[in-house]
Amino acid sequence: DDTLEAAGDAKDVTMGRRGPTKHLKRINAPKHWMLDKLGGVFAPKPSPGPHKTRECLPLILIVRNRLKYALTGREAKAILMERFVKVDGKVRTDVCYPAGFMDVVSLEKTDEFFRLLYDTKGRMTVHRISAEESSYKLCKVRDVKIGEKAIPHIVTHDGRTIRYADPLIKTNDTILFDIESGKIRDFVKFDTGNMCMVTGGRNAGRVGVIVSREKHKGGNDIVHVKDSSGASFATRITNVFVIGKGNKPLISLPKGKGIKLSILQEQEKRYAA
Questions:
Q1: Over 80: is that where the pLDDT of 234 sits?
Q2: Residue 256's pLDDT band (boundaries 50, 70, 90)?
């Protein structure tokens, strides 16, 4: 009997779910989705895609919670199934498709275009842009490789592989990517004096000019950034995304222009309004 019991215990220990989780509890959802705690048990679990689960915004939240085009999940699904929503120029019908930083969401039916960016509190915001600006996006170069048959290619932050890119493009640089043609229009080097946005850490969403870069062998390189209000801060190089040459950004910035205010400054601003 003891052996049978032990076998049963062992079985309990080894049994588990097969494959990755298919659900996401509301409490475990990323904070920047801004879902209310009591609005249900579950949250949309992002599908596998170009952006990480914690660094994306599923399309259902964009259509329903941000743009308020739907009241319920069913309505959001109906809108997507009508093929009205495009992400980076491609129709997406999956309600849990992970749209992420720099992605262009277009609703041609209403002639509206949005870019996903971070606000100064590090939350992902849906920033309205012009039709002209929606034709391109910025991509950070994650890797530069030589593949089969000695074909050079670069890999970007949103999972794109672009072959035969300019040989001057290196890791951490930013490319100006034409969405329609799939070609690189221009690129910006990761250099001091260029404008950048921070995409992770406690300074996420802040915009400033790169002042210097500390190299740490075997560790993370640290980048020092200064914003237009004169405040300086430092972050890891992996969190820095170059968005412009000099102090001129290549994209329009969301409200606040990437300047982080202290609690007192925010209070003053609120009282002034």
A1: yes
A2: confident
**Pairing state of beta strands 104-107 and 85-87?**
antiparallel
Residue keyed to tokens 């689960």: 53
How long is the chain?
Answer: 273
Alpha helices for 160-236 (secondary structure H):
none
Long-range contacts of 21-28 (CB under 8 A, 24+ apart): 21/45, 24/53
Q: What's the CA gap between 242 and 210, in Å, rounded?
A: 9
List phi, psi (to 5°) of 93: -110, -5
Question: With helix as H, strand as E and coil as C, how does 67-126 read?
Answer: CCCCCCHHHHHHHHHCCCEEECCEECCCCCCEEECCCEEEECCCCEEEEEEECCCCCEEE
Q: Which run of H or E residues covers position 4?
A: helix 2-14
pLDDT of residue 7: 54
**In percent, how much of the chain has pLDDT > 90?**
72
In the structure, what pLDDT confidence band is assigned to residue 257 with cuts at 50, 70 and 90?
confident
Q: N- to C-terminal Cα distance for the chain?
A: 76
d(CA 93, CA 96) in angstroms, rounded, equals 9
Tokens of 61: 């939240």
* Cβ-contact 162, 169 below 8 angstroms: no
Q: What is the DSSP letter of 148?
A: G
99: tokens are 């749209």
